[in-house]
What does this fold into?
Amino acid sequence: MNDLWTNRLSEYLDDELDSVERAALEAHLATCGQCYATLTELRQVVAHAKSLENSEPATDLWPGIAHEIRRERLPERRDRLVRRRFSLSVGQLLAASIALVLVSVFGAWAVLHSRAQSPGGQMVEAPSPAIPEIRPARWKVQSDMAIAELQDALTANEGKLDTATVRVVRENLVIIDRAIEQAQRALRKDPGNTYLNLHLANTMRQKIELLRRANALASQS
Amino acid sequence: MPRQVLEDTLTADSIAADAALAGSGDPSAFERLYRTHVARVHTLVRRMLDADEADDVTQDVFIRAWQKLSTFRGESAFGTWLHRLAVNVVLARRKSVGIERGRFIAGDEPLKDVSGRPHTPELSMDFEEALASLPQGARQVFVLHDVEGYRHDEIARMLGVVPGTSKSQLHHARMALRRHLER
It folds into this structure.
């Protein structure tokens, strides 16, 4: 084995030699079994490194993190948020809308539910001005596709759920749809409103989550 | 759109949504981000530093992420942003514990110790253990290049060395580790 060549084997593997060096090394490899064997082992090391898997920490670190972030002074954070809101560009608002679309937790639904209703328990109907539709963005198209697919699946699976569950799911969907409609109306008046974009995206993902959970429940029945 | 593609898109959008919510001060969204990414961050930290530091540094990464979320613009995926932050925290830690640049460059002797052991069954240690036994400089280059996919010019910038040093450290690390592949 020639150290001169051995020390270049990693660069050869990583395709970092120029054509002349590469040709010279390949000529050496054709005659040096030891370098060839080393190259094979190095190749195995690289392949092994790429196949390494991640693992969770032995203990849950979240409580410590949660404790620290609670110590963040809220006024400072609010100040940052205010500054950030005023610095958002249209593109960033669009990105925020895209970002805030789909899936995940169900918990915020209860909050949305209470906000969506008036003190008397009735939904607050906003006026419906004749304002042009906003052109659908990519996230909106994907959301609509996801919702359509999940609703089709739920329609097919509804028979597996008991009547009371179906009624609750339907009632909740009506409430969420109304909240989405309200947010969309408000956004037609003020398309750049950060809060409304967040609210709409959050509401749509709650609808998707509700549909997913209902389908999951049906599939288990 | 195929269902799997749709699911992947929804997952990516869900993470982006949680990043935006966490950036607006929602700790629940941030916890979901933590749960999604903790394994990758903790593993990266554990591989680059000593195992007994991994928990503390991982916590530090997430606390810094919370503090810096208002600067996350969504130009890259959240996971990429968090990963880069984790690397920076690790490298800062490396400096703060007094690992000097000279020691990083001159890491060959411990490497010889690792690679010079006879290959007996009892020493056929787990690849992760072999990785942990490398000197820190070689270990960090190996992890950044071969595991995490950074280029030598990026690694050189991060570590404050020339690309040739990064290449040399990588080669020495690979030469040491080849004896400890599981067979």
